[in-house]
Design goal:
Length: about 325
């Protein structure tokens, strides 16, 4: 991933249809007229799930928000969720942030932002989302009322019902605990106040803070142009024209894929047709990463064969499901 470039990314609340069919998220386009939020608004909400495809820039954006919050003298921490399957919260923090975490716990007043990254990576390694959040909650130690938590995941790995229930039950938002020390008068009337709150919680219209389900929107044309300038494209307009000509927007709207298109454009001056774009994208995605612990396990050829078999199996399953539905509703 190239150095961070501020693209002013935007977010939108997810509909029930999008949660039920995560593939819909891949078809979102440059729809600037739809209601959307930017990071400052998103960070105001205490519990957020952020869904977006691989290569969309989730981790990139979350790490930058940590830097921005810290530069504003606020407490913020980035934690890969998979690390919480083995380590305590304080041991899962990035190097150099342990002192800040201890300072936050000690002051008992300040809000801290925690960015818990990649439920999908956690599940890929057979980790338990519930166990990871249990470790996180233990590390927070009674300060749930003064944390804002942003959890990221790929759409296809998120279970809308069970995972959301786990998120809410393990990290409930407790605004009532965020009050300052009670005065003598408040202590005197607290029994009555508790009775009133208990009654309100039973009412059907009682408002309960829940996890806000959001998606990171694909890059717009303007954001692609900004990325081009940041990555040194000499003629961004010509690059955008080539994207239009070769119908390459399916790749251009994700920062990782777009940066790869830019590298191709800078070296060859063209992007190729759709088939060539897919071929180049597959080769890049399957290329062995020397920084990974499993580097060298598979050759490029074996990785390609495995990917082709998985794609064929997925196609066969989808075809059989479609045939079954046709039999049910037409036959």
């Amino acid at each position: 991933m190239p150095p961070y470039i501020n693209l002013s990314r935007r977010f939108r609340d997810l509909s029930k249809e999008e949660l039920a069919e995560p593939e819909i998220l891949a078809s979102l386009n440059d729809l600037d007229y739809l209601p959307s939020l930017e990071w400052p608004e998103l960070l105001n909400h205490p519990r957020v799930l952020l869904l977006a495809e691989a290569g969309s820039g989730k981790t990139w954006e979350m790490k930058e928000q940590v830097k921005q919050l810290i530069s504003d003298n606020k407490f913020a921490f980035f934690i890969p969720l998979e690390s919480l399957t083995q380590d305590r919260l304080i041991d899962s923090l990035e190097v150099g942030t342990e002192t800040s975490f201890i300072a936050w716990k000690s002051d008992r007043v300040s809000i801290a932002w925690f960015f818990l990254d990649a439920v999908d990576e956690l599940k890929l390694k057979q980790g338990s989302f519930e166990r990871a959040l249990n470790r996180f909650a233990k590390g927070i130690d009674g300060s749930l009322h003064r944390i804002h938590v942003i959890v990221s995941c790929r759409p296809t790995d998120w279970q809308p019902n069970s995972d959301k229930a786990t998120f809410q039950s393990k990290l409930p938002f407790e605004p009532s605990l965020s009050k300052s020390i009670a005065t003598a008068e408040e202590l005197f009337i607290s029994p009555l106040d508790k009775k009133q709150k208990a009654q309100q919680s039973k009412e059907p219209n009682a408002k309960v803070e829940e996890v806000r389900l959001m998606t990171l929107l694909p890059m717009s044309g303007r954001q692609v142009e900004t990325l081009c300038h940041g990555l040194g494209v000499k003629d961004p307009a010509a690059f955008i024209n080539e994207i239009n000509k070769q119908d390459a927007w399916i790749f251009a709207r994700r920062p990782l894929d777009c940066s790869e298109l830019i590298a191709t454009w800078n070296s060859t001056g063209q992007l190729g047709n759709r088939c060539q774009q897919h071929e180049a994208n597959v080769k890049i995605k399957l290329k062995d990463d020397p920084d990974r612990l499993d580097s060298g396990v598979l050759s490029d050829d074996c990785a390609r064969q495995g990917a082709e078999r998985l794609a064929l199996g997925d196609l066969q399953q989808r075809t059989s499901q479609k045939a079954w539905l046709n039999d049910c509703f037409i036959g």
